[in-house]
Amino acid sequence: MSSTDAVTIPAPVDDLRAWQSVLAHVEAQLLDGTLSPGDHLPPERTLAADLGVGRSSVREAVRVLEAMGLIRTQTGSGPSAGAIIVATPQGAMSALLRLQVAAQGFRVRDVVKTRLVLEAAVVADVAGAASPDLEPSERLLDAMDSSELTPQEFLALDAAFHVSLAAASGNEVVTAMMAGLRSSIEGYVQAGLAVIDDWEATAARLREEHRGILAAIVAGDAFTARARVHSHITGYYTQTALVTEAPPTPETTAVVAAPTGTGHIALSRRTAEQ
Ligand SMILES: [Zn+2]
Fold first, then answer.
1. Contact at 8 Å (CB) between 156 and 71?
2. Which domains does the chain have, with CATH numbers?
3. How far is the CA of 122 from the centre of ligand 1 (A)?
4. Cα–Cα distance between 14 and 12 in angstroms, integer?
5. Could you tell me the distance, in angstroms and rounded to a whole number, from the CA of residue 160 to the centre of ligand 1?
6. Model confidence pTM above 0.90
7. How far is the CA of 232 from the centre of ligand 1 (A)?
8. Selection from 149, 42, 194 nearest residue 160 by Cα
9. What is the CA(274)–ligand 1 centre distance, in A?
10. pLDDT lower than 70: segments of the chain
C-alpha cells in the first residue's frame, strides 16, 4: 500500500515542510518581537535564501500568514513584495472568534456596538493603569504616519492599533476578543473606503484622533480617553454611512456621545448587508 501511495502522491511532503518552516520562522520572529506590527516582511528572495527553501514555499507561507490576518500584502505587486506586518499571533480564542466571524459575518452595527463597549472600557483601564506598555501602540501610530501606505494597509494598522490598546490593558480576555474581532473591524472599515472621497483628509483626521486618544491615556484622563475613542469609532462609522440610522450608543458611553468628522459625512449609502 505504501508503495502505491508513494507513486500517487508525488513528493508534496518536502514542499509542505518547507513552507511550514517559513511559517514557523516568521511566527517565531513575531512572538519574540524581532518583527512587529508596522514592519515589513523581508523580501521573498531574502527569506528563501536565508531559510534555504524555494521561493514558492515562501509564497505559500505568505498566503497562510495573510489568511491568518498577521500580514497584509500590497495589492498589485508580488505576494511578498512589501508585505506589512499588521498583527501578532493571539492564540486559540481569537482564532476561534475569527473563524466564527468569517463564517457568520456579524452585522456591522453589532461589531461597532461591541467595539464601543469594549474599547471605552479598554482606554479607561489603560488610562488608570500605573505603567501600561504603550510602546507597541506608539509604534503603530508612527508606522501609520508613513505616506507610502495604501489605504488598505493604513486601515489594517488602524485595527491593529485598537487591538494593541486592549493588549496594553493587560486584560487577556478582552485582548483575545478584540483580536478575534479585528478582521470584522477591518472588514467594515475597508468597505467604508468606497464612499470616502478624500482619503488623505480622512487619514490625517484618523491620525490626529489616534494621537488624541493616546495622549489622554498617557495623561491618565480616562474620561477624555473614552470620549475620544467613542467619537473616533462613531465618526468613521457615520462618515462611511454604512447605515442611515444613528450610530449605536451603549449606556456606558452615552454621556460622551458626540460623533465628529462632520466635514466628511455622506449619508447616501445603504449596503445590502444592513
Ligand atoms: Zn482607529
1. no
2. 2-85 (1.10.10.10), 92-264 (1.20.120.530)
3. 14
4. 6
5. 9
6. no
7. 7
8. 149
9. 22
10. 1-16, 75-81, 90-104, 241-274
